[in-house]
Amino acid sequence: MSLPPILRDRLRLPVVAAPMFLISNPDLVIAQCKAGVVGSFPALNARPKEELERWLTRIESELATHDREHVDQPAAPFAVNQIVHRSNQRLDDDLSLCVRHRVPIVITSLGARREVNDAVHAYGGITLHDVIDNAFARKAIEKGADGLIAVAAGAGGHAGVQSPFALIQEIRQWFDGPLLLSGAIARGASIIAAQAMGADLTYIGSPFIATHEANAAPAYKRMVVESSAQDIVYSDFFTGVHGNYLRPSIAASGLDPDHLPQAQARKIDFTKLENAPKAWKDVWGCGQGIGAVDRVLSTADLVHRLSEEYLAGLQEVQNELQAWRQKLSV
């Protein structure tokens, strides 16, 4: 398994920060990149659409300044997430801006389109596509994606339901390119586990909600800190697509988290219901890994904590492996 130089040489930790709708902004992205992990944001977070150019210019400028001042420890690259489904009316304009700014990494979601991959490849960028099963993974590579993000059970937002073990091992049977794993990863030991099962990098979102730089309401950040895996509800009621949401935010919207209708089965368009709370804005998305989040930190401190845990875990694993080698050699 080999990584392209942009994902191999400029990261201080094998982590790509997931683009979070409404949450990821230039402050967060810049802090993530300076800390040594790939920072990312959805293009649709820049509103109105004219704001996207300003976001890209600011991110590029501040990271370039950082690199000049820290020659021995340059920032990690950044990524822009594009929703490539035909319903995204901004895609053509947003993609043109990414091409003009030569965005290093483009993360694609909700469908795979060859013309999008070709546009990014034309200037030397790479594309990563998020998938929830092996069939979607094959389609993404057939359409020209460079790498895959396996979104397993427990991930925040529109997550899959498959075990990470099942998802990674099926993809690795035929794909030896860049592979990331998403789903309840919030500790350094989890990063090691993801690599052990075959992923090159991890894809972490929810812990970054509880950072000072994240564009989340203070109550949202507190709820992440105070909640755990049992407080995550998996439902398709809010958008028509299954996703993971914080139970207290559902209750605060006047709904019963334990008795939500199934939108697909009952053909409910939640967005057209009178006085319906808005997904992501009122009903907050989150993954199952937040039991490891015990305080609101700066992004730099969060990445530092993950790095320390990762290094300590590697040493422990090395010691355990050595012990098992000795037993097996007897």
Written description of the protein model:
The chain has helices at 5-8, 26-35, 51-69, 91-100, 114-122, 134-142, 164-172, 188-196, 218-226, 247-252, 263-266, 299-329, and strands at 15-17, 39-42, 78-83, 105-109, 126-131, 147-151, 179-182, 201-204, 232-235, 243-246. Helix 2 (26-35) runs parallel beside helix 3 and helix 8 packs across helix 12. By secondary structure, it is of the alpha/beta class. The protein contains twelve helices and ten strands. An eight-stranded parallel beta sheet has the order 1-8-7-6-5-4-3-2. The chain has a two-stranded antiparallel ribbon with strand order 9-10. The radius of gyration is 20 Å and the shape is globular. A hairpin with a 7-residue loop joins strand 9 and strand 10.
Number of helices: 12
Q: Using only CA atoms, what is the Rg?
A: 20 Å
**What is the count of β-strands?**
10
Quaternary structure: single chain
Query: Main β-sheet: number of strands, strand sense, barrel status?
Result: 8 strands, parallel
Strand order of the largest sheet: 1-8-7-6-5-4-3-2
- Roughly how many Å apart are the termini? 31 Å
N to C succession of SSEs: HEHEHEHEHEHEHEHEHEEHHH
Label the structural class.
alpha/beta
Unreliable parts: none
Mean pLDDT: 94
Relative strand content: 5-15%
Shape: globular
As a percent range, the share of helical residues equals: 25-40%
What's the SSE blueprint?
Layout lengths: L4 H4 L6 E3 L8 H10 L3 E4 L8 H19 L8 E6 L7 H10 L4 E5 L4 H9 L3 E6 L2 H9 L4 E5 L12 H9 L6 E4 L5 H9 L4 E4 L13 H9 L5 E4 L7 E4 H6 L10 H4 L32 H31 L1
Parallel strand pairs: 1-8, 2-3, 3-4, 4-5, 5-6, 6-7, 7-8
Antiparallel strand pairs: 9-10
